[in-house]
Structures are given as structure tokens and as C-alpha cells.
Design brief:
This protein is of the alpha/beta class. 36% of the residues lie in helices and 16% in strands. It has 12 helices and 17 strands. A hairpin with a 2-residue loop joins strand 8 and strand 9 (188-189). The radius of gyration is 21 Å and the shape is globular.
Amino acid sequence: MVGASRAVWLHLLALYVLCLKPRLATNLSVAESEPTTLEHVYIGVKTTGKYHDSRLPILLQTWFTGAVREQAFFFSDREDEKLQTRSGKRLYVTNCGATHGQADLCCKTEAMLKELARYGTQMGLEGRAPWRWVCTFDDDNYVNAAALVEMLQKYDSNTSVYLGRPSTGQAVHNWFEARTQPIKLGSYTVPKASSFWFATGGAGVCFSRALVDRVFAFLEETGPLSDICVSTGLPDDMVLGFLSELVLTTNLSHQSEIMHSHLESLYFHRDAIPKQVTLSYGMMAAGLHRVQFSDGDQPGDFSVDDDVSRFKTVHCILHPHLDWCVLQRKGLKPVMNDEL
């Protein structure tokens, strides 16, 4: 009888915590006597309905599998039964619009942060490792989970930490200088003369638990992130830099050597691939940017026709013992599902 009462009490406690606002739900002390592992990290991949079929199958074939899938979700604006099934019910549909506009992207980014923090808290209550980090990526990113964890192990999630690749070669200066009226966000007045760095969302961004908690506290006072984006004129990745650096005085920790977007020329010696946290691909004016190997292609690499993003080849460099990688090296073309 005592055991049953205790079980009921724990269930009610879990429901109470999960019903709290995100800031309160995450404001739990996290001892870091043990090194950070993948179980401490929650991953969000931002996508949109029109890219489900073209971009997500390669992620589901490569890095969005196994232990990583247990820590990760797709965040989209459209229901998709096929994606929900193939991803193992890892699709979260936001109430945000499907445009590439400022308000919709900021809405989706805020939904990712809140849901990942809520889910991480729930897992902690169910006996899993308490969450320490939230990392967000785009649907054209390859994420090397081992390198991601290695990067995060260098930092303390009990302090405010903001990690990513700067979008430009210098900080954003005096973005608000031309405003005739001051911008007020709750009790905070945005200074006209100001500068801040921001991490490009296209290379992935990571936030410590402590910083996420402070962001939620600020949003409780000011309203949703999409409102701040509109009032400041900042897109989603810039507004997170603005909040982290300017409002919450947390400097961006630059990770340009290991986090990459499709805006770069992605040339690597294959021995350097295990050190990279994120890679990407995408069309630019000069053509398709994707991973290219400075030491040349090798027998066993997938052809460009079979591996447009080069993510299959990258995945087999990192995980050579996978069955389909072994078949490819033997010249036996593996059968792979390139559709949802």
C-alpha cells in the first residue's frame, strides 16, 4: 500500500512540474560530477512541410538514428504520417506558420526550445539523465553526435553558455541606431549604440540549461520570441544572439573550426571529419556547396549521383562497420530507402 501511495505521489509531482511554465520546469540544479553524455543533450531539427520528402530521408538514413534519435525531434509546420512513422514518432508539429518570414521562424525556434526543455525535464523525472543542453539544427545539417558531445564536455551547463559559428566576420554594430523611438522589451531598453555576435542557425547552435532558463525568464516578462523579432527587426538566429549577448551578457563561444553551414566551401581531409560537429549542403550562386575531400575520393565512397549531400559518405567515414557501409566498400551497392 505504501508503494502504491508513493507511486501516485510521484505521478502527481511529475504532472505538476510538467504543467509549470518552461522556465520553472527547467530551473533544477544539475550536478556535473559526471561528464556530459548524449543523454544530457536534446536536439531539435527545424524543418518545413515542403522539405520533408527532399531533405529528411538522408538524415533518417544517417545521423538521425540509434541513440541520437532518442534525443532528437523534428520541428515542422505540417503533420506527416509517413515522417512520424519512420522517425519513430519524433515529429513535433508547431502552431507556427509555414513561411520563411521573421515571425514564423521565430515562433518555430521558440517552440523548439520550450518543447526540448519540457521533454528533457520529463525524462529526468522518469529516471533518465537530467538534461544539460539544447542544440538546434537545420534540416540540411549533418550532426556528428560524438563530436557534439566532446565539444559540450568542455563547458559547464550550470553557467550561461552560447555555442555556435558566427554568421559574419564581425559583430553586428548599431543595428538599432536609425530607430527614432527606443525599443522597450519589458523593463529592458535596447541601446541604440550596441553590438553583438550571433551564431548562424545554419551551422547549429547550442545553449546551456542555465542560459535557456534565463531566456525563458526574460520571455515571461516580454512576451513571445516572435514579438521580439518583429519589434527589433531581427530574424530568429540573430535575436537569440541579441538576447544572449546584449540582454543576458553571455558572449558567444565561437566554434567556427568545427561547426559549418552550406554558406562555406566545405573542403576537408577525410581524417578531419571526425572532429567536425556539423556539416551541410545547399545551393549557392556558384553551384551546390557540399563536402569535398582534399585527399580525393576513395574506393568505397558513394558517387555524387547516389549521395548528393555527401552525408552517406561522411556517415561511413564515421561509422565504417555499419552493414551498408561494408557493402558499399565491397562494391555491392546497398539497398537504401531514399523516400519517407
